[in-house]
Write a structure and sequence with these properties.
The protein is mainly beta. It contains two helices and 20 strands. β4 (83-89) and β5 (94-96) form a beta hairpin. The chain starts with a helix and ends with a strand.
Length: 273
């Protein structure tokens, strides 16, 4: 039963995982596997439209079998940021979303989708300010939020929750925390109790509506903060969190350990709480 719950949780949360995909190679695919077909039993290349040079996708989210979004960046040149890249899925094919009207350069790095068709994405512009974008049913539009453009405000991850609410991890007023909202308004929750708490790198929501942030801090928000001590090892990082229930959490990450030769690869970390 525990294993079935874990797999079911992966299916729900997997839409928020970062999946780098080189568009040029994906566009050369000759076959697309449909769910339920014999070919769908393994990984298959799925045709995607070409972006500009140096295009890459970093996040994907789905609201159903015929509605999904993938976001990233295109036209990047070394450390010089490019422009946002967004794709939409209609159940049979991916297509480029026109984002040329956006007023900023830079990429998109996270996206979340709601059951009602709503979707939100976050990115960073060339000035280093984080941006929040909303899908309005036709295109992506920049949205305002408390602290936008202010020093000490950061947006790091986004996830959908029950009742059409979305959650964003980040930092506001130079305190680590969590923001929630929808197409009407956004508000910051009380910050994490420790003023020195590091900025979380992402956010996930359980089927029951509990909200978890993760990264160099792991904490649950259910109207108040509960911080879970990290026990990951030496020089360790958390890369993902899957909350199946309030007492059933999986973590992925890596740890370099003590010393070692130059270029020493990290070791895999997988933990269950």
């Amino acid at each position: 039963m525990r294993r079935r719950a874990f797999v079911r949780g992966l299916a729900v949360t997997g839409a928020g995982l970062a999946l780098p995909v080189p568009l040029a190679s994906a566009a050369t695919a000759t076959a697309t596997a449909r769910p339920g077909s014999a070919a769908a039993a393994g990984w298959q290349q799925v045709a995607a439209p070409d972006g500009r040079a140096a295009a890459h996708l970093v996040a994907v989210a789905a609201a159903g079998p015929d509605r999904a979004w993938a976001v990233g960046e295109q036209g990047r040149n070394g450390s010089t940021l490019g422009t946002p890249l967004a794709l939409g899925w209609n159940g049979s094919a991916w297509s480029l979303a026109d984002v040329s009207h956006l007023a900023y350069g830079g990429g998109l790095r996270a996206v979340a989708a709601g059951a009602d068709g709503a979707a939100w994405a976050i990115g960073t512009n060339t000035a280093g300010h984080d941006q929040l974008l909303r899908w309005n049913g036709t295109t992506w539009r920049e949205a305002d939020f408390p602290g936008r453009g202010e020093p000490g405000t950061r947006l790091t991850g986004v996830a959908s929750g029950p009742s059409g609410r979305f959650w964003i991890s980040g930092r506001h007023g130079d305190r680590a925390g969590l923001m929630y909202g929808n197409d009407k308004a956004w508000r910051w929750c009380r910050p994490l109790p420790d003023e020195a708490a590091p900025t979380p790198s992402g956010v996930r929501v359980t089927p029951g509506g509990e909200v978890w942030v993760y990264g160099d801090i792991i904490a649950r928000w259910d109207g108040a903060w509960t911080v879970i001590p990290r026990t990951l090892g030496i020089r360790a990082s958390v890369t993902g969190l899957l909350p199946v229930a309030h007492d059933d959490i999986w973590l992925t990450g890596f740890a370099y350990g003590v010393g070692g030769p130059p270029g020493k690869p990290p070791g895999v970390t997988l933990q269950h709480w």
